[in-house]
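Q&A log
Question type: sequence-to-structure
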Amino acid sequence: MLKLHFKDNRQPAFWVTEKLYCIGSASDNQLVINDKTVDALHAKLVVEDDKYVLKDNNSSSGCFINGQRITQKEIFPGDLLRLGETELIVLDPRRLQEGEATVSAPWRLVSDGSWLPGKTFVIPAERSVTIGRTEQCDITIPGTHLSRRHTELCIQGSKMFIKDLGSSNGTFLNEKQITEAFAENGDRLRLDVYTFRLVAPDIHANKTRVRASIDSISKPVERKQPSSEPKRWKTRPTSPGNRIEPVDDAARASITKWILLGLLVVLLGVIGSKFLW
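Response status: OK
Response body:
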């Protein structure tokens, strides 16, 4: 038995006790979601062989599990479901403590490369997650650069455990190829050409680490445009040719006196020469 918890607490949590549930905005559904982005019959939740499978009903805004659009896929505790703009967290009541009202936030993979710009994948704490190009993986990236089952991620305490599954092109943590390694918040994961930043939930165990928010990581770096105005160079007065020496008042008066005296001598010389001739 599972429990669907509305992330924004807009509606009470919903217990999954039957084998078939219709989900949508129409009043005749077993789970009614009052959201204009949710179709009248948006999806179905089917229990098959003790497996809970979410099936999209050709909805206009789609069904997503951990940020990935699906047509039908098994759901697990810790998964983040999105129908239209409504988000639900899948809970296992057996793992919840009595009276627990809050749900811990999951880790996230935030793409910071050009191949999946701004794409975010949720990594639940309750189970391991596989990444690869086959649909059997929890996170499917249909690219020839990835192996069918490329990497496995698992949350252990306050860190993420990363294991390469024998991929052809390797798994890299902070540009170092690994087979197994522990990662921390802010580390960089690269699967061939696909690069991601690891974003941890804001928990008290790591409060000494500086955490970058998702928005700030995915936000493109602003680059300053070169200015079209001519540069104004400042010349430092290091040589006598471009150094201005300070002159005090006494020195200035002395210079003026000698200049006047020189002019007087020249004037007397001119007058004397006229009388002699």
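Response note: Residues 97-103, 203-223 have pLDDT under 50 and may be disordered.
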